[in-house]
Amino acid sequence: MTACTCPLAGYCDRHGIDKSEHWHQLCQTRDNYRAAWDEGRGPGQPRKPLTAAQIERQERVKEASNRTARLIGWLTFFRANGDAGIGDTSFRMVQQATRRSPDAKSAIVDLLKQCSCSRIDAVARLNKEHPYPANTRSVGGS
Question: HSE on the CB side for 101, CA within 13 Å?
């Protein structure tokens, strides 16, 4: 690998960017940074456009995130008085699920599996991440 040839910080002809003192020092001392700049992916270099596969993956991740957010909103609607958070509600819903709603049950089970290998750990983690505010659920009226 070719060593850094710039004597001072500033514009680097080799990499086509303006390097600060810190970046110049990294270029002189760290092979991995210099290699990244040589490959066109180092700090300060313009980003390359995403490939079709990367765009498709981003869309799948966004859709999965939106599905999870909708499920959490739906579970909040079915909150019971003793539930501390989404974890308690989801655990109760799985226990009470009937044959009429296999899709809902599988979605909730998938949510619990995403959080942990153990269902008890998943319930605790979901309760911690999505707790219900205290005294917001009134019983029998306004």
Answer: 11
- Residue 137 placed within a domain: no
What residues contact residue 104 under an 8 Å CB cut-off, 6+ apart? 93, 97
Return the closest-CA partner of residue 72 out of 96, 90, 98.
Answer: 90
The segment with the largest mean pLDDT, out of 18-27, 39-48, 97-106, is 18-27
Structural contact between residues 19 and 6, judged by C-beta atoms closer than 8 angstroms: yes
Residue 138 forms part of a structural domain:
no
Tell the residue number behind the tokens 């991440």, with chain if given.
129
Q: Is residue 5 included in any domain, yes or no?
A: yes
What is the pLDDT at residue 20?
93
Q: Where are the beta strands (DSSP E) in the chain?
A: 10-12, 17-19
**Measured distance CA(4)–CA(30) in Å, rounded:** 10
- Report CA-CA distances (Å) from 136 to 72, 82, 83, 92: 17, 12, 12, 19
Residue 100 above 70 pLDDT? Answer: no
> Cβ neighbours of residue 124 under 8 Å, at least 6 residues apart?
87
Please check whether residues 62 and 125 belong to one and the same domain: yes
